[in-house]
Amino acid sequence: MKSFNSGQYINQGYYKSFQPTFINREWLLDDMELLNLLSQADRQLGRLDMYSEHIPDIDLYISMHVLKEATQSSRIEGTQTNMEEALLDKEDISQERRNDWEEVQNYITAMHRAIKMLKEIPFSSRLIKETHKVLLQGVRGEYKLPGEFRTSQNWIGGASINDAVFVPPVHSSIGELMSDLEKFTHNTEFLLPDLIKIGIIHYQFETIHPFLDGNGRVGRLLITLYLVDKEILKKPILYLSDFFERNKSLYYDNLMRVRTHHDLKQWLKFFMVGVIETAKKGVKTFDEILKLKTQSEIEVQNLGPKASNAQKILNYLLKRPIINVLTVVDITGVSQRTAYNIINDLEALGILEELTGGKRGKMYAFKKYLNLFS
After folding, report:
1. CA distances (Å), 28 to each of 35, 193, 201, 348, 358, in order?
2. CATH number, domain at 231?
3. Taking the complete model, does pTM exceed 0.85, yes or no?
C-alpha cells in the first residue's frame, strides 16, 4: 500500500475535480500495525457474531440497533431526530421536525429492504441504487434523482463549488468507477481480507460520491450490507455510524488524507479501530440486554393474574420501547381500564416511565432499555 496513488486533481476550468484511481487491482499488505488491528477486528467481530446464534429472538434487538444506526447516520448529515422521536408515529411528531423523522424512517426501511434484496441480487450497483431510491423517497432529496447516479457535478462543503472542501469526479466517469468498485467487491483472483476490502470500498464510494444526495448514508449502510453478504455476520448487528459521529472530524480528515497524501493505511487503521470499538460495545450491549430482559421477566411474573399480559407488553417493548394505552389494549385485548392498571404496575416496577406529562395521549417508554442504546 506504500505505492498506492489515490488519484489526481483535474482542472475543469473554474474548479478542480478529483479523479480517483481504480481499486480493482492487486494489493500488498505490508504494515504490521494495520495487520495487528485487522486481527483484533476479526476477533471482536467473531465474538459479536456469536450472539446472532445464541440469543433467542435476536431480531427483536436488531430492530433497535437499526434504529440507532438510522438516527446516528442521519445525524452526521445534520438530521436532529433522536431515538425516542424516531419510535413515535408520524402524527406525534411536530410539523417542523417531520422531515428529519421521515429521513430516519427511510433509512430503517432502506436497511431492511436491502438485507432482503441480498438474498436475490448480489452486492452491486443495482442494489446500491435500489437502496438509495428508498432512502430519498418523499424527503428533502426526492428531487435529486433517487435511485440514479448523478448527471451533474456535486461538491462537499463550501457555499459553492468555488470554495468547496472536496469536488468528486465528473459525472461522466461514474459508470466506469462504480463498475470497477463492483468488480473489486467480487474479485477472487486477488485475495484481500474482507475488512480491508470494505474499508477500501467505503473510502472509494465516498470519493466517487455517485449520487446528488444521500451518499454518506448509503456509504455507511454499505458496510453492514457487505459484511452480511460475505457471511462475516449472520445478522446485521454491526453499525459504525455511532463511531463515525463521535469522531466526525477524524472520519472526514482521514478520508480526505487519502486523497491529498495517498495515505490509505491511516484511513484503514481508523476504520479497524472503529470496527473493534463498535464490536466490543455491541457485545457489552447484548450482555446488558439479556440481563435486563431476565430481570424484567422475573419482575412481571410477580404481578399474578396480570403477569401474562404484562409479559406480552414486555415482548413488544423489546422491539419498540415506546407505548401508549391503545397499543396495550391492542396487544393484550383487555379494556382500557385494565390496560391502565397494567401500565401503572409496570411503572411501579420501573419498567415503564411516562414521557409526555399530559393527562391525555400519554406515552410511556422502557427507559432502561432505551438507555442501553444511548
Report:
1. 11, 11, 16, 60, 62
2. 1.10.3290.10
3. yes
